[in-house]
């Protein structure tokens, strides 16, 4: 559930901006402040038309608050308890929505200070605190949302010294807010961004927004009943930049489903007993045939002193087929070695972790022989990794220890590092127990990298890791095949000293930090003075005392009290130098032009890192890294991988009547002569890039069609083909060719055809693999067969509903597909979905060649009309594109003689080298994208699923009975 707050600062004058944001952001609930609208002038109709119910209270030219909701609203109160004779504006309304009490707040501004308005602000705050105390311990979830006109800490303003006399930053206001929080409320945004300057307001003066001269004034306070459901939150800052926008920007949070959260909490409670007790009965049994699968791999003793494979830092996320994505966990990298009942956890520098004994205990209870690579983390109540809590996880009430495993290097005497990552993950999934919260598989996401990165940022994660699906494991190497993208700028640094400012009562004021250059010289990069409380400082000073030295460890002794543009005055800081033996991790805003970190915050000590290895991590260019990583699978490796996977599939009990073929072309030659189905084919221009952005060549296309032919040819056999040729690749000129008279090889079978103008033509029949590859040699990237066969050209084997979106998100295509299925299920009609490989979806209905194209089209028309009635807001039956007004076309007219669409398993001439892939209906759900199925993963998927489309060529429905049933149900 997405809940937002927005100080609109005049709803009628900014209604267009509000409606635009509602359409783009799609929040479920919205609290609005500063309506400046009389009750009778509130734009109820426009809000309703946007899909929201509303309650509101306001006065002309004054404040006013409102709550909008997609679900039913039950108003509970329209003011706080108690009364005040002054400034009686509408500032509070309360409602019950989706089982949650929502309080919408506009707390008085209070300026100028001192004065009667500020006094009133404190009185109003007192009324709010009294009411909040009554709500905080309720058994119902409660959220108090809105503009509090308070900046609780210095992090909440860009310039604290400017606001010292401002009512928003006065100590009285800040204390009132703190007292409110201390009742037991969770400040959602600060919880998600504990050390960041997150602004929600920028005034209209001197381009404050452009300079990011902002304040945080808008808050979500959650009671204990709902705080555990907090998943993500952020500010839609760009709205502040829209022309004519309010001085505030919308702020939102996302809550997990209530039942899902309860399950997570239940699992946390049982983690300890699973970690310490015997878990032998829960170990996943070795799958049948696994030993045979591994039998061809090298046999070696259990490795020791393993240094894990490293990822290269790059500057931005990317979308690229053939890559898998994982969360970048904020913890300690660890290799777990388990052999003959003994388990050892080691750091990336082979230091033994002795402080995580529960993980060792659980590993040893499994009685496995395995080497695992992963990350040890401490999870907070929101389920995200808290690096600070990991330092002392035993003493943290809400810290849940977890070892996320993302790779397997050795198993039962076999070396797995020479297998591609995808194969290693399959083995890991087969052998790793799944019922422990202490040791968990780190989930792999095969989605768009940019989309995944944005999701990681919204959830407050450290970043993402991108891994080539075919990458081998190279120990202790900084690989181009594993790339990391950081959502937060983090850096390991050497602690070389600490400073104390004049008059401070703290153990120290800041740490003097550095990194080594390429020659091993320690260079000063600035100070870090935030991120540690008194308790942490006391712990750290004990570490520092034995390391105190009189000499600076830096190449040049720095001026630790040096002024900067951000701190123009000296603080009287004095340095105490330390031997450079300690490492910590810091988060920072940027590196200045003189090589210093700015706005650095301490995140925790790094006992797993050798200080000599600490260097400045520089972001590499993403495009260069990706282009140099050679996504194509090496031919020899791919051949070995195919054999291994074929054995795996046979041992798993899947249908083995059909198997993808081996690679057709393994050489790097520009031209090859091959023999297929007894026919000789000359394949040319093999190194030509047909998909330039994806580095996919014409050779790759031939290899794909050769491998997929056992599955694809049954859907081409005896069908006339329309040849859509792209001889220059996907960005070159293309043209259609239907007549192959005097052009096709002698052995190719054709169908004579006379068109409506009396011209005689020969249509190619897709009868075998040789014909398929000959079409590919002409530059036919996609294969377009008729719906009917040469033996019954007027009777299609299937009816197709083609969902053709315009500006819709693919989730809306999925919604339309699900509506089609609902209609077909209601009349007992089987259906088979597949991605188009472009932007839409195709849904096939078997007819068994028993009906004409006209009858098929009539039936499709009935179906799409019923569907369009259910989702008229974004679908249309209008054939002319200009008349569709941006809506999704429910195309039934494809069901006509001679029409074609991209066939099943066909490649598409689109960036990403996507494939038109059959699906199960269980897969047709939110989150599915076109890039799920590409030239890189299609063969592996088919090997796992078999052919999901066989029912399309089945007996077919009884059309007369089906239409009769539809009339009885839908009329």
TrEMBL record:
Pfam families recorded: DNA_ligase_A_C (PF04679), DNA_ligase_A_M (PF01068), Exo_endo_phos (PF03372), LigD_Prim-Pol (PF21686)
InterPro entries: AP_endonuc_1 (IPR004808), AP_endonuclease_F1_BS (IPR020847), DNA_ligase_ATP-dep_C (IPR012309), DNA_ligase_ATP-dep_cent (IPR012310), DNA_ligase_ATP-dep_CS (IPR016059), Endo/exonu/phosph_ase_sf (IPR036691), Endo/exonuclease/phosphatase (IPR005135), ExoIII-like (IPR037493)
Keywords: ATP-binding, DNA damage, DNA recombination, DNA repair, DNA-binding, DNA-directed DNA polymerase, Exonuclease, Hydrolase, Ligase, Magnesium, Manganese, Metal-binding, Multifunctional enzyme, Nuclease, Nucleotide-binding, Nucleotidyltransferase, Transferase
Cofactor section: Mg(2+); Mn(2+)
Source organism, top-level taxon: Bacteria
Coiled-coil intervals: none
Ranges where the ATP-dependent DNA ligase family profile domain occurs: 394-544
Catalytic activity: ATP + (deoxyribonucleotide)n-3'-hydroxyl + 5'-phospho-(deoxyribonucleotide)m = (deoxyribonucleotide)n+m + AMP + diphosphate
EC number in record: 6.5.1.1
Single GO term (MF): DNA ligase (ATP) activity
TM stretches of this protein: none
Enzyme class: ligase
PANTHER family, alphabetized: BIFUNCTIONAL NON-HOMOLOGOUS END JOINING PROTEIN LIGD
Family indicated by similarity: Belongs to the DNA repair enzymes AP/ExoA family.
Record protein name field: DNA ligase (ATP)
Species the sequence originates in: Mucilaginibacter lutimaris
